[in-house]
Amino acid sequence: MGKGNFLSKVFFLALSVLALGTSVLHAQDGAQKYNLCYYGVVTNVNDQNMLNITQDLFYAQLRGIGYLDTQDLRDDEIKDSYTQIQGDERGEAFFGLAQTQEKPENSMLFVARIYRPRSDEKWSCSFIVKNLQNGEIFLTGKEYDSYYKILTDAKTLIQRVVSQATGNEGSESVAAKTGPGGPRPESSGGGAESLAGTWGGEKSASKIILLRSGRQVQRAFLSRH
Q1: How far apart are CA 123 and CA 146, in angstroms?
Q2: What pTM did the predictor assign?
Q3: Read out DSSP for 168-219?
Q4: Which residues, 6+ apart, have CB-to-CB distance to 27 below 8 Å?
Q5: Cα–Cα–Cα angle for 131, 137, 142, nearest 5°?
Q6: Could you tell me which of 170, 161, 171, 184 has the C-alpha nearest to residue 110?
Q7: First vs last Cα of the chain: how many Å apart?
Q8: Which of 32, 106, 115, 192 qualifies as a FRET site for 145, CA 20 to 30 Å off?
Q9: Angle, to 10 degrees, between the axis of helix 3-20 and the axis of helix 48-63?
Q10: How many DSSP H helices and E strands does the chain contain?
Q11: Angle at 201 between CA 66 and CA 80, to 5 degrees
Q12: Which of 159, 178, 180 is nearest to 168 (CA)?
């Protein structure tokens, strides 16, 4: 990957982290632990760089939920044989493929569906969870005028659908982390002031720095150690 493309990817990741916020759900004492199989995103969008970053962000959000043991299965080959994205609004066809593989006890299957019928129409994004203990499917999602809005809403929608699927609605405590410094109360505004600081990135970036610059990030700095 060229240097320009790499820096663009890091910059977009920084913008996306700013939009998502940083809430982390912690399990209360004695809360049941769930195994969650994360299959990433199924979509008809062809921009692979944008898709990779989106999947990284959703995965990071899930890993912040303390009562989940999240397994990263986004590269599972079952996605290669999945062709029913257009009509599979509840993920039933996808989950049918996923359930051919053995899963641990207390397992849930998680997939995000991002679908756009045509290039001039709205984006549809759904977060879908199937609880294998009772066979129920839980879904939450919206339609968006822009892809960026999907990233803005992801934090809230992911937390909501996981809470519904596990039955932990109203029982979780919420805290925001800004890195090694530890937790602090979540800002009601969710703006850049509350998120400014140094953040860990994906595998190819050691850190990302968000500046205090209103709603926009002026620059994302790459630092290798």
Answers
A1: 7
A2: 0.67
A3: -TTT-EEEEE-STT-EEPPPSS--HHHH-EEE--STT-S-EEE-S-TTS---
A4: 33, 66, 67, 172
A5: 130
A6: 161
A7: 20
A8: 192
A9: 40
A10: 5, 10
A11: 80
A12: 159
The tokens for 46 are 């062809």
Reported as a single tens digit per residue, the pLDDT across 83-134 is 999 999 999 999 999 988 888 777 999 999 999 998 888 999 999 999 998 9
For 13-70, the pLDDT digits (tens) are 545 554 444 444 444 445 678 999 999 999 998 899 999 999 999 999 999 999 999 9
Closest CA to 59 of 70, 43, 46: 70
Encode 125-159: b = buried (16+ Cβ within 10 Å), e = exposed.
Answer: bbbbbbbbeeeeebbbbeebeeeebbbbbbbebbb
CA distance 112 to 41: 5
For residue 35, the cross-strand partners are: 69, 107
Compute the distance between CA of residue 216 and CA of residue 128 in angstroms, rounded to an integer: 30
